[in-house]
Fold:
Amino acid sequence: MKTTKKVRKTINISPEVDKALQLLSKRFKKSQSRIIEELVEEKVKELRKEERLKVFNELVEMTKNLRGIVGNKRIQDIKEEMGYEL
Structure:
């Protein structure tokens, strides 16, 4: 998400979050804007990982369902049963 063009935003945060943001900014020697950018990037990365994991788990479930239909046979075994030569 690296970009050189910046967009100005006005946000409202609680005093506690403001103090935490100032603390992080001083601790890591980064601007408050950069701290916010990094936190947002991290959350987006987590969301994408969760989405990929969800799709993966759905694929695993689909293969479990296919195993029930096909059994534990290999594709070659099924072809031979159907009369196809390899």
User: Anything to note?
Assistant: The mean pLDDT is 86. The first helix runs from residue 15 to 28. Helices lie at 15-28, 32-70, 75-82. DSSP finds three helices and no strands in the chain.
